[in-house]
Amino acid sequence: MKVGKLSGEMLERMVLSTIQFLRKDVLVHAGLGEDCAVIDFGDEVCLVTSDPITGAAEGVGELAVHVACNDIAANGGTPVGVQVVLLLPEHTKEEHIHQIMEDIQTTAASLDVEVLGGHTEITSRVGDPVVSITAIGRAPKDRYVTSKGARPGDDIIITKGLGIEATAILARDFGHMLPFSVTDEQILTMTKQLSVVPEGLLAAEHGVHAMHDITEGGLLGAIREVCQTAQVGAEIREVDAAVSELTKSICAHFGLDPLSLLSSGSMLIVAPRGQELIDKLSEIDVPAFLVGKIVEGRHPVLIRETGERQSITEHVEDELWKFFRRIDRMVE
Q1: Is the CA virtual torsion 195, 199, 203, 205 positive or negative?
Q2: CA–CA distance from 211 to each of 73, 99, 214, 242, 247 (Å)?
Q3: Which CATH number fits domain 8-140: 3.30.365.10, 3.30.70.580, 3.30.930.10, 3.30.1330.10?
Q4: In the prediction, which pLDDT does 35 show?
Q5: Given its phi and psi angles, is residue 231 left (phi above 0), alpha (psi -120 to 50 degrees) or beta?
Q6: What is the pLDDT of residues 217-255, one digit of tens each?
Q7: Residues 248/28, Cβ–Cβ less than 8 Å
Q8: Among 12, 22, 140, 134, CA closest to 75
Q9: Which pTM was predicted?
Q10: Class of domain 147-331
């Protein structure tokens, strides 16, 4: 199998179809395109999500906390705590474990999130550190958001820009392969944008119809999952998809499409009054961009800058995993 998330079709066939027992107090069950499970806790709901970090060598603790807490925010919730699972190869040094945990603690504290516990293990089954985090959050029962609420006529918004997480990974781990230098300050600028908690909470208060954290598969993967979940179509305009100059330069050198690139730090928001929400987000210094519309149909369509219309009907493989395969072949 290819490296990366299972396609939606494979996930449904091999994983989700096996889940038969459902509790009545679980309001949002395991499903394609849903960032969190939602559990009825009376006046509030409990949000639960899990995510691993497997594609980065540096800064894995920071990335892991943000990715998990971003899923809570995508459901309109406030993250409360995280549980950490560290699976570490036999050659791991004590100082490396300490550094990962320092990064996790510092990042969690910056989000007002407690590290609740977890599991740490040295194992011969992994060659590189694997960090997996379960995040727990809360939201008012009448205000949580899911991916399936998108409706024809809604505006499609992204925050900050595409490729934020992938740019940080590529600059940190593969900067030596670039024909230009990337400064520590530029990398720090990217990592400071990794959290989508502020925009997620504001958007939920604004009354949006759907949100989805843009992770593997980038914008195209995220909007395809929303369309599958909500059974709608979408039109996305490439010209309006914000991409930083650094991301453009790195993508151009490595031959990557930023629209299909790992983009934690950018939230996909579906709302009936897009410009009104963009104005609200600007008040908390979160730039946001109107990139398309939800329409009737079942699949998203990407309108390239050339005017070409590209239907996104298949699983979107993340450009970062394609890059990793090229690197592996070069090493071999």
Answers
A1: positive
A2: 9, 33, 9, 18, 23
A3: 3.30.1330.10
A4: 85
A5: left
A6: 999 999 999 999 999 999 999 999 999 999 999 999 999
A7: no
A8: 140
A9: 0.93
A10: alpha beta
